Amino acid sequence: MGRQQKIKMERKMKKEEGTLDKGKIKNIILKSIAMFLIAIIVVFGATYLIAYKDRDVEAKIGSTVVKKSELNARIEAVKNQYKSYGIDPEDPQYASIFESIIEQIREEYINSAVVEEYAKRNNIKPTDEELKEQIDKEVENIKSGFQSEEEYKKAIESSKYKNEEALREEIKKYVIPDILEAKCLAPIYSQIKVTEEDAKNYFNEVTQVRARHILIKVDEGADEATINEKKALAEQLRERILKGEDFAKLATEYSEDTGSKDKGGDLGFFGKGEMVKEFEDAAFSLKPGEISEVIKSQYGFHIIQVLDTKIRGRSYDQPEKVKAKHILITIDKTAAQEDIQKKIDLVNEIYDKLLKGADFDSLAKQYSDDTNTKDSGGDLGEVSKGTKGDVWDNVVFSLKKGTFSKPFETTEGYEIVYVYDKIPAVTATFESVKDEIIKTLEEQKRSQARTTWLNERKTEYGIKYGNMWDEV
């Protein structure tokens, strides 16, 4: 794994910390057929089993048991998947991430056991038709990972299953819990409704504001007289702003927020949860141009003006894009100056050939150091504005369709980019994304309903942790 890929994976892990749900965990493990064929027994056969012959008990819900060995096997499968990305689960820098992942795996095992216990008590079982439909779907997913039916069959024959029938039996073990959960929760899910008005409110919800403020600090432990004096100053400044004095000028002169005062108090855009509650509540209640009352927070007194807002609907906008090809000549900045100059001379030589009519694809195949694209003539496909940095954007998005750039320096070296198509930005309208929003809200409500239902069943049945051999 290259350094950039590893960094991207690490960022993705950190982003997913605390949000890794049952489906994401399963997707990690089922990333490829090879891993599926090897790990399916140890990963997915756990919570549907009831009987046990040892003291290997993680938890017990009614008569349903979660076994430690099977839980640990699943955890190891997830760790091995991350190891395949070049990330060591034992590395201390990832400790909090993997603690969160492990806790969520454990919780999902218990949740599956709760569903199973409910199904047993209410005589809910999967039908043969339901099993066949789900197993067929999983088999097709597996087949899609192979070039041909013959290749798929060879993989099965060389695996522990030997034939598709045995594989289907193994798949059956892990589709049963999913089917049971769907049937148990179907009556609750059927009551979930999302109206067009719900969707419109979601689209128009303010998710970010750009604000500026003046802070009059109040030190911790200040006496009442000092607090009143500070508040009076803030009130006076607010009155001066309302009478027409320049907010930015007063912020520069009086604000005690060293991070923003030299910018006229401008804090830029921020979302919910990024500021202290009193400040956030005031900022998100204002319309652009409005001035807040004097707001007290743990830092002191604030006067806030909202400059701009962003609604959730803007997250559905499509950025400007180009379809482009490039020739990359990488440069090692630690190399000798003579070697660096040779690379610069090479990229200029390539540019001269392009000016004389040479074929871009042929030159990319011959010279480009980008091994991922050179064989396709340097084709990058669609590239959205903002994904490759300001330098790249400033050069490439100023090009006309059918033209190529001069050589320009990036973090990787020197590039020449050819734009073969331009796709303008698209501002989403409510109607264009209404169905997508309704689906999103339905999924959110189902998730909330599932959590509530599971918590109610846990309270009803009780969960006993650890060894309960004497009770069996």
Structural notes for this entry:
With 472 residues, the chain is an alpha+beta fold. It has three domains: 3-191, no CATH class; 205-315, Roll (Chitinase A, domain 3), CATH 3.10.50; 321-423, Roll (Chitinase A, domain 3), CATH 3.10.50.40. The chain has helices at residues 3-16, 22-29, 33-44, 68-84, 95-121, 128-143, 149-158, 164-189, 196-204, 224-242, 247-254, 277-285, 337-355, 360-367, 390-396, 430-461; strands at residues 57-61, 64-67, 206-217, 266-271, 295-297, 300-311, 321-330, 379-384, 403-404, 408-409, 413-423, 464-465. Strands 7, 8, 9, 10 and 11 form a five-stranded antiparallel β-sheet that branches. It has a four-stranded antiparallel β-sheet with strand order 4-3-6-5. Strand 1 (57-61) and strand 2 (64-67) form a beta hairpin. Helix 3 runs antiparallel to helix 4 (68-84) and helix 5 (95-121) crosses helix 8 (164-189).
Report the helical percentage. 40-55%
The quaternary structure here is single chain
Radius of gyration: 30 Å
- Which ranges are low-confidence, i.e. pLDDT below 50, for 5 or more consecutive residues? 1-10, 14-20, 28-54, 468-472
Sequence-ordered SSE layout with sheet pairings:
Blueprint: H1 3-16, H2 22-29, H3 33-44, E1 57-61, E2 64-67, H4 68-84, H5 95-121, H6 128-143, H7 149-158, H8 164-189, H9 196-204, E3 206-217, H10 224-242, H11 247-254, E4 266-271, H12 277-285, E5 295-297, E6 300-311, E7 321-330, H13 337-355, H14 360-367, E8 379-384, H15 390-396, E9 403-404, E10 408-409, E11 413-423, H16 430-461, E12 464-465
Antiparallel strand pairs: 1-2, 1-12, 3-4, 3-6, 5-6, 7-8, 7-11, 9-11, 10-11
Helix pairs in contact: 3-4, 3-8, 4-5, 5-8, 5-16, 6-8, 9-16
